[in-house]
Amino acid sequence: MDREVKSALADKLLAMADDELILGHRDSEWCGRAPLLEEDIAFANLALDEIGHASLWYALLAELLGEDGQTYPDRMVYRRDASDFRSAQLVELPNGDWAFSMLRQYLFDSFESRHLQAISGSRYQPMADVAAKVAKEERYHLRHTSAWLRRLGLGTEESNRRLQDALDQLWPYTGQLFLHSGRPEILAAAGYSTSPVALFSGWSDQVTRHLQESGLRLPEPAHLPASPARDQHTATLKIMVADLQSVVRQEEEAVW
């Protein structure tokens, strides 16, 4: 594999893994706090899925870089500073209320469903294989969150207001999801990934239609940012990562 392509692919895999890990951690914070017992269980399982998917992408990155696939994922999660993560700001934001978390999950799920479908046909077979595996679980995620959006958007005046408030806050962050690296054209030309522009266009049409059918109005037209800027994080990521790594940092010799 060409060195430049390999570097761009590594950037993409790292961002994908970090997105899944951080969102999964945010979702896990709802455990014991969801509005319904059934949903408490469902959302906790969804969080476990996201973290499991992160582990798969970290392991694939380790394989690409020639690292130890057994130790590399834990090292990436527990031994990096927050500034070294490449997660999108959307997944880093604090949970807010139930409408906020559910809408964020829907926006991510709808993006991921299209992204996984695209890279399932990648010329890089290991990534295509993982994408096909992850897509099976993500189909459930999208069905679940799509139904919740209708339930909240078409429910009461208050549930619609809360969901609209969440959309107003989250919408400006969505475009960054599509830019996993600063060199997407390299991967697209090599047949390893798809154009962010094409992916974004299909996602925007799908999401816009579902949001409007759920009684919501878009704050502004969706757009792709000029740069991924995935080395720029929200202030809350550092707090989250410190909490996530607290046991390992205190007990350097601890093993599971």
Q: Describe the largest sheet.
A: none
Number of helices: 11
The value of Rg in angstroms is 18 Å
Order of helices and strands: HHHHHHHHHHH
Low-confidence stretches: none
| Quantity of strands, as a count | 0
In helices, the fraction of residues equals: 55-70%
As a percent range, the share of strand residues is: under 5%
Q: Which structural class matches the secondary elements?
A: mainly alpha
Shape: globular
Average pLDDT, rounded to a whole number, is: 93
- Give the terminus-to-terminus CA distance: 36 Å
Tags for this entry?
globular; mainly alpha; 11 helices; 256 residues
Describe this structure as you would to a colleague.
- The chain has helices at 3-28, 37-65, 72-78, 89-92, 98-119, 125-153, 157-170, 184-190, 196-213, 235-244, 246-250.
- By secondary structure, the chain is mainly alpha-helical.
Report a brief summary of the structure.
Helix content is 67%, strand content 0%. The protein is mostly helical and 256 residues long.
Give the arrangement of secondary structure elements.
Elements: H1 3-28, H2 37-65, H3 72-78, H4 89-92, H5 98-119, H6 125-153, H7 157-170, H8 184-190, H9 196-213, H10 235-244, H11 246-250
Helix pairs in contact: 1-2, 1-8, 2-6, 5-6, 5-7, 5-9
